Amino acid sequence: MARRRSKDAPWTARVLTILPEVFPGPLGASLAGRALEKGLWALEATDIRRFATDRHLTVDGSPAGGGPGMVMRADVIAAAIDHARPRNPAAPALYLSPRGRPLTQARVRDLARGTGVLLLCGRFEGVDERVIEARGLEEVSIGDFILSGGEIAAMALIDACVRLLPGVIGKAQSAEEESFEQGLLEYPQYTQPAEWEGRTIPEVLRSGDHGRIAAWRRAQAEALTRARRPDLWARYLERKADRED
Ligand code: SAH
Questions:
Q1: Closest to 106 (Cα-Cα) out of 78, 140, 137
Q2: How far does CA 206 lie from the centroid of its chain?
Q3: Ligand 1 geometric centre to CA of 69 (Å)
Q4: Is the pLDDT of residue 43 over 90?
Q5: Where do the domains of the chain lie?
Q6: Is 146 in the pocket of ligand 1 (CB under 6 A)?
Q7: Closest atom of ligand 1 relative to the 149 alpha carbon
């Protein structure tokens, strides 16, 4: 994966969408928003409709072979990609799609280390298969459910990447202890008041004994992962066994 290019070209998310007005949306708030203002990353939402060639600015057509809904046209999308891609040739070109490989924290980390991403947001029934093939788009899913468009999926991916960029989160440590970073779900968190509706904070967290606290958190994270995510737990055990070999 290519490294970030230089200080004057921050990590950049280029988004191809028929709804450019929904960006930055929530990405303009809080940590990501402040980082955007500071120029720690950049966002460019491009209207796919600009690349339509007829006077009605058509971006879609009815599905070949029949069936409900509309399909986004290969020629229009290809023109949008060909316009955006040369601006950051090292950035992977991804099509947000429920058929894609599910996004993971490992992939997010990988993308955040690069120069940015080019994201194609589908709408309607999706996009003409030929443009996915011809432009070598990688399909990425954010989960086994169907959204009405790729914009929210793109925002989820961008948000996950941006919070890993240098300088975006205050304490470098906080990103490292998160769920998935160790292959485990996160341990339970508590804050004041010490007692709330008769519930107290586990005594160990008030002990000031950092060794005991770390051991308790690790045990909690393991128990939670085992109970809730047998898939992650199995992988965690495998990796642990590999490390011990
Ligand atoms: N007919 C398609 C779904 C189209 S949904 C199918 O059954 O596979 C319309 C658009 O929303 C898609 O083109 C895609 O860009 C986006 N989308 C929907 N669900 C998504 C998901 N789980 N992950 C990423 N993008 C998704």
A1: 140
A2: 35
A3: 13
A4: yes
A5: 11-162, 179-244
A6: yes
A7: 11
Q: Does this chain's domain 11-162 share its CATH topology with 179-244?
A: no
DSSP states of 156-181 as a string? Answer: HHHHHHHTTSTTTSSSHHHHHSSTTT
pLDDT tens figures, 171-211: 655 666 778 878 999 999 999 999 999 999 999 999 999 99
Q: What's the pTM value of the predicted model, to 2 decimals?
A: 0.94
97 — pLDDT class (breaks 50, 70, 90): very high
**Distance (Å, whole) CA 25 – CA 151:** 10
> Quick check: 221 pLDDT over 50?
yes
Q: Is there an atom of ligand 1 within 6 Å of 63 CB? A: no
Find the 72 Cα to ligand 1 centroid distance in Å. Answer: 12
Architecture of the domain defined by 11-162 = 3-Layer(aba) Sandwich (3.40)
CATH code, residues 179-244: 1.10.1270.20
Q: How many Cα atoms sit within 13 Å of 244 on the Cβ side? A: 6
Q: Alpha carbon 170 to chain centroid distance?
A: 20
Question: How far is the C-alpha of 189 from the C-alpha of 174, rounded, in Å?
Answer: 13
pLDDT at 6: 52
Q: Whose CA is nearest to atom 11 of ligand 1?
A: 149
Atom of ligand 1 at shortest range from CA of 141: 23
